[in-house]
Structure formats: structure tokens, C-alpha cells
Amino acid sequence: MQDATAHDMVPPGTLKGRYESVKERIAAAARRAGRKPEHIVLVVVTKTASPEQVREIVSLGHRDLGESRVQQMVQRTAQMDEYLARLRELRGEAPEVRWHLIGSIQRNKVRKAIELSRLIHSVDSLRLAEEIHIQAARRSAPVDMLVEVNVSGETNKHGITLAAVRHVIRQLDTMVNIRVRGLMCMAPLGGGRDEARRVFARCYDLFDEIKSSGIGGEGFDLLSMGMSGDFEEAVECGANVVRVGTAIIGAPAPGSEAPGTHDHHEHSAEAG
């Protein structure tokens, strides 16, 4: 499924129909693996969504949304805060939305990233983690984050090598202002189902080894794997967080994004 085009991965119909279809596919994949569907967190990646689509997703009862760039998250959260404030005025209450940052972070954007994100999926170096630790010093609670692992060893991918992950997490465990909640990885672009499964299975094995060893503590319990082209394989291999954009939002119109907005967490061709 990884080598399918973005348009091939989008079921026809309404946004609600695509959203329900993805949830059904996640549930089916969980059952095939002998797991409970309610234990899988779906993060809807809103990178290419219109403001109306984001509001519709929230109106359907969804709470976990993802963005790949800090600057766009600033705009999204401001729009959502305004929408939720109107809901409170009209209804007396509004849902809580949890934002996930899934893309790479420049160190000069860390302060804003930790201010807006419930979970940062993409901590890909010790230097970045140290900057998060410094910027989080004034917070009342530690910053929840995932360590990004470069399972496939591709030189053009961000992430910490398999051999270094345990060592890095031991170092992160000493930083009181951050909390390592688990791992994140991506399958290689164009690698196909078998390669996706290989990468996901290896990342799950590493996750399980670290969790069993006690590194990271009791809060080490999240494994973020899978996007629009491979989230079913990810769930079958043990993911409990999946990041899906295109299969729900729809493929962006050609030329609809400004140059340079794609990043490695979206395999360039799709938004989750």
C-alpha cells in the first residue's frame, strides 16, 4: 500500500464517510491482531485540511489532531480556539482538542511547540531533547514526547539509529522536564507492504524490549507507527497510535501548497 498514490488511497464520498471508513479499518486490523480497537489512538493529520474540514472532524467527536509544522500549528490552534470559544458561548461547553506535533522541529521553534502540543512525536536527536528540557523548565508538568527511530537506516530520514535508542532514552530519563512516552517510526517510501511490516515489527520489538527493561518508567507506553498507506499493517504489528491524513481529508489539489511545506514525516506525497 505504500507505493499507492495519494488519490488511490482516498475512499470516495464525504469526509465523514472517509473518517468512518478509516476507523473501521483500524478496528478490523486490531481484531486481526487480537487487540482491542479502543486501545488504538487515531491522530487525524490536518496539514492539507481546510478550516471547515478541521471543524467537521471535531464535530464528529474526534479529539486528536496532528500537524507537521509548528508555524501551521500556531494558525490551526488559533482557529480552533476561536471556534471552541463560540461553541462555549452558544452551548455552554466545548470539547477538548489534543494537538500532536508529528513533523521535525527546529530548535528555535521549541518553545512554541511545547506550548501548543499535547504530544511531540518527532524528537530525533539528543540536542533537540535537551532544548525541549531547557524550554520546559518553567512548566508545571513535563513535556510528553516520543523518540523518533530511523529503523530502516535510510540516510535521508530523521531519527535515532536502532543501536543508539536505548542509550539516548537512558539519558533522557535523567531530564526532569521531559517524559519519554514511547517511540515513533515510519516505513520507507515505496517499500511496499512487506517492507512496512518489517520496519514496524522491528520497531515494536525495540519498543517492547525497552518497556520490559523498565527504561522510561511506567509512562513508556506509546508506539506511533503508520500513515494513510500503511496504518493497517502498523496496527497489526503493534502500533497504538496511527497518523492518518490523506485517507480522511483527501489528497490536496495539485499546486495547493506553498513550496517547501512538505516534510519527511509525510513522505512528500501525502499528509499522513
Highlighted features:
39% helix, TIM Barrel, 272 residues, alpha/beta, 15% strand, single chain, nine-stranded parallel sheet, globular, 9 helices, disordered N terminus, 9 strands
Question: How would you summarize this macromolecular structure in one to three sentences?
Answer:
With 272 residues, the chain is of the alpha/beta class. It is 39% helix and 15% strand. The chain contains 9 helices and 9 strands.
Break the fold down into its secondary structure elements and pairings.
Elements: H1 15-32, E1 41-45, H2 51-59, E2 64-67, H3 70-91, E3 98-101, H4 110-116, E4 119-123, H5 126-135, E5 143-150, E6 160-161, H6 165-172, E7 178-184, H7 192-213, E8 222-224, H8 231-236, E9 241-244, H9 246-249
Parallel strand pairs: 1-2, 1-9, 2-3, 3-4, 4-5, 5-6, 5-7, 7-8
Question: What is the share of helical residues?
Answer: 25-40%
What CATH architecture label applies?
Answer: Alpha-Beta Barrel
Regions with little confidence, pLDDT below 50 for 5+ residues: 1-8, 256-264, 266-271
Biggest sheet descriptor: 9 strands, parallel
Q: By helix and strand content, what is the structural category?
A: alpha/beta
What letter string, H or E per element, gives the SSE order?
Answer: HEHEHEHEHEEHEHEHEH
Distance between the termini: 13 Å
